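Protein Record: Sequence and Backbone Structure Tokens
======================================================
Scope: a single protein chain, as residues and as a discrete description of its fold.
Tokens: labelled as protein backbone structure tokens, with as many entries as the chain has residues.
Position: the record begins directly beneath this header, with no further notes in between.
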Amino acid sequence: MKLTVYERHSLIPLGLGSSLLLVNSLCRSFLDDFWKGFLCGMALMCFIYALCTLVLFFKRNFKHYGNS
């Protein structure tokens, strides 16, 4: 199954952000405060990027297909 551009631009950052949070939670005792904050910040940026992509997707679909 081939992913569309919007699916690829939203699913890849969501998977990457989830992986970063998983690494952060599993290695919490081994990481300094800087790396904990860095991983959480990178995960947040991935989630924000995916959210912006989804907003653009729905905005384009509403403009193309109308609100009905």
